[in-house]
TrEMBL record, chains A, B:
Keywords: DNA-binding, Transcription, Transcription regulation. Residues 17-77 form the HTH tetR-type domain. The keyword Coiled coil does not apply. InterPro entries: Homeodomain-like_sf, HTH-type_TetR-like_transc_reg, HTH_TetR, Tet_transcr_reg_TetR-rel_C_sf, TetR_C_27. Residues 40-59 bind DNA. This is TetR/AcrR family transcriptional regulator. GO terms for molecular function: DNA-binding transcription factor activity; transcription cis-regulatory region binding. It comes from Pseudomonas thivervalensis.
Amino acid sequence: MNQPSLPSPSIRGPADHDIRNQIVAAANEHFSQYGYGKTTVSDLAKAIGFSKAYIYKFFDSKQAIGEAICSQCLAEIVAAVEQAISEEGLSATERFRRLVKTLITTGVNLFFNDRKLYDIAAFSASERWPSSQVYNARIKRFVLQIVREGRELGEFERKTPLDETVDAIHLALRPFVNPLLLQHNLDYVEDAPTLTCNLILRSLMP
Amino acid sequence: MNQPSLPSPSIRGPADHDIRNQIVAAANEHFSQYGYGKTTVSDLAKAIGFSKAYIYKFFDSKQAIGEAICSQCLAEIVAAVEQAISEEGLSATERFRRLVKTLITTGVNLFFNDRKLYDIAAFSASERWPSSQVYNARIKRFVLQIVREGRELGEFERKTPLDETVDAIHLALRPFVNPLLLQHNLDYVEDAPTLTCNLILRSLMP
């Protein structure tokens, strides 16, 4: 039986994949306690009981480990949004409200409460790691999808160029999506989402 | 001839007022070079050639000096906005565009370019000093004034409660008004104001 070749050259087999996951899980634990910025790969190797050289067999750098953690975390937010907005029979307006609400509650939880991933997410956002670029692009696609659907259903206005509408909404959501901005918005996560949602939805009225 | 008594107890006469200004000017210079956070009143006293005790005759704390600098800086932004929007014969839409544009260009200049006041402004915003609260309230009053005028002229919709509209707009402008958010938005100050302005103005359409 022919097996398809594995997509990434750095993953050489199921065992390697397990070890990668093991390193990521241990690093996640370690970073959330000691911070990402201050930890070196040597610290990490010592803490999880692997040699530094062994870790470098699986990851090119500390950032590569951070990236893996970040990608996981941001993928969780995306999955939560996907689930919240994909329910059948919702209006585009309701889908948009769910998008915003889920983005904020999941983001606040992951970055600041449960797992204190803020430290890594902030590095990712400020240094524009691929994980945060992929995340931003994904959020923008959600916005595009909802705006397009709302326009097709006659729920939203169609005069403004679609690109401009999507860019402007994506920008208006940035304070709640980007962890660097979100950290200064934690006092606002109760009321602000509704106010911002309502303003955006008024701007979409036909 | 009876002289009215001076309003603030800490300002005891024109000479004292001059000395206060002199301290503020010197502190401003010193902070912009060495940062507000790291400087102590002793450092400051040494740098400007006054005794620490003498400085404490005029200011209760380092924060009081920082506040004086911050108030001046934020008053400059407010004055610039006032001038930009008070021109006769403008539509409410045009006044709103000018409000946003002036807020951003003056803020970016004062906080980040010319005088590097970001350090102090960030303390003021994150610790909610009176100067930044007064500033926020003033910006909100500008928004209220323009929205109210636009409603009276029939330029803007009147269905949404005035309070909600003003709060939501004030919030949407926060990333460009609050220096803590603005620092992460410097890459966006070219295009974002127009996009955000257009979105807000669409939300105000009757």
